[in-house]
Request: fold
Amino acid sequence: MLTLKGIDKCWARGADSVYGLKGIDLDIVRGEFVTIMGPSGSGKSTLLQIIGLLDLASAGSYAIEGRDAMGLPDKELARIRNRHFGFVFQRFHLLPDLSALENVMLPMSYAGIPGGQRKARAAELLERVGLSHRLGHRPSTMSGGEQQRVAVARALANDPGFLLADEPTGNLPSEKGREIMDILKNLNREGMTIVMVTHDEALGALGTRTVHLKDGALDSVVERGTRSEA
Ligand SMILES: Nc1ncnc2c1ncn2[C@@H]1O[C@H](COP(=O)(O)OP(=O)(O)OP(=O)(O)O)[C@@H](O)[C@H]1O
Ligand SMILES: [Mg+2]
Reply:
């Protein structure tokens, strides 16, 4: 469970402050599939980064599993981030010199999981995203859809409580984007909590809840039930 209250994010610009987020209140409960929508510049990526502790709020409170995370030292924040969050980005962000298998193994080595276990788990995760036949391939030899599936497998490597995705289908043709969405929906059905930013109305509507942002503030929230169907 994540609890954000009164979250502001601002940056100094000369003598002024520019606001990216204003007064965001948001709870995310286990098993939800939250989609974040809104115009370009409305603060979607900023909010996702704050949720995943990749960035810190300027004001407000943030608690994960009942534990206040505001004001913790960087090292402790990194530990919480690595333990609780898996990330998927629009541009895949795979390491070009590593194979699919090695890309998925990498976060496990940071987490100190022994070599043999890493390999077996990475192969299993790649199988789950339908890439058993691509284990040894480098990103440049895979399609965008395949690269994003590797990125999803990598995000799951350390068994995170939350999967955070910033426009994961944004760089893919719609049919390939739909495949990624199907994978995310299946993961959600198996219990994974997902927060996804999207511009695509049809994909946004597949979430159990949609949060609409406007000018850095919550504009409206649409609830559709606790678990994704269909
Ligand atoms: N590091 C920063 N310094 C200053 N302003 C920033 C910074 N990061 C984001 N902003 C501003 O905050 C606002 C929200 O940005 P954000 O990237 O969250 O928007 P977004 O909703 O994800 O947009 P898009 O749909 O284009 O990805 C924008 O006005 C942006 O210029
Ligand atoms: Mg963005």
The chain has one domain: 29-56+78-223. Residues 174-189 form the longest helix (16 residues).
